[in-house]
């Protein structure tokens, strides 16, 4: 039986509590109040409710920690070292269209380093979790990134820039280069789950640009603790600042970086 820290137990319990109302709302989509937050970027009452639950639960457990929230922005805590980074629904567009691929993503940062992460897919009851130095898990099962060594045998995931987002032309160049090289490309609509799937070995790699810290914070530690690599497009560690992510195993990481660099010209 694996032993989890108190911190991880608190985080997982908060995710489960917030998920209960999400699952109810998902079942009653036609009554959901939805407002436009920007082109093709929705915020719903479900999102706001889930974020409120997460904040309340985590604040109860760790009253002095700060927050970086998708909906609520940055909230400083008395403890300047620790900050929760939260996306109450990653895959909001999927959620609002009745597509069952969405999750809750929670990461904890200490002095700028991510030390714990939880990604919970409530419809499948899949709880991905990791702590620095303690490995990555799906529920009780230890995770490892895939062992594939060749891009031509690999399945990669990505996100496609949508209406109102820059970078369409560059993305099409990247996609063109990748499509000619790999066994398949998938677009699931949740960056957090894409990273969780790389950690679980379901996908061999993931790349995307123009994403926010709350989309990727928990996924970064999951992939690392599952034995994988996560960098920005330059091979550095500024993913949260640049909004660029490349994640894969040690065999595919450099070839992926090289392929994307060549495509971008």
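^ Assign residues to that structure.
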């Amino acid at each position: 039986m694996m032993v989890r820290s108190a911190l991880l137990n608190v985080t997982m319990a908060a995710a489960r509590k917030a998920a209960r109302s999400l699952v109810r709302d998902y079942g009653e989509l036609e009554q959901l109040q939805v407002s436009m937050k920007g082109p093709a970027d929705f915020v719903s009452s479900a999102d706001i409710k889930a974020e409120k639950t997460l904040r309340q639960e985590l604040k109860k457990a760790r009253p002095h920690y700060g927050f970086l929230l998708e909906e609520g922005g940055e909230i400083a805590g008395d403890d300047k070292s620790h900050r929760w980074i939260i996306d109450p629904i990653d895959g909001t567009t999927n959620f609002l269209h009745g597509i069952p691929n969405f999750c809750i993503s929670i990461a904890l940062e200490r002095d700028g380093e991510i030390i714990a992460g939880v990604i919970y897919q409530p419809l499948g009851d899949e709880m991905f979790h990791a702590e620095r130095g303690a490995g990555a898990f799906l529920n009780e099962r230890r995770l490892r990134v895939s062992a594939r060594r060749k891009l031509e045998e690999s399945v990669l995931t990505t996100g496609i820039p949508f209406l109102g987002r820059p970078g369409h032309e560059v993305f099409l160049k990247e996609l063109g280069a990748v499509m000619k090289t790999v066994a398949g490309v998938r677009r699931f609509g949740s960056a957090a789950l894409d990273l969780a799937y790389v950690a679980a070995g379901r996908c061999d790699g993931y790349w995307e640009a123009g994403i926010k810290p709350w989309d990727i914070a928990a996924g970064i530690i999951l992939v690392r603790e599952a034995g994988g690599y996560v960098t920005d497009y330059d091979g550095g560690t500024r993913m949260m600042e640049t909004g660029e992510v490349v994640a894969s195993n040690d065999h595919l990481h450099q070839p992926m970086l090289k392929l994307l660099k060549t495509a971008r010209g």
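Helices lie at 6-27, 45-61, 92-96, 168-179, 191-199, 213-225, 239-242, 253-264.
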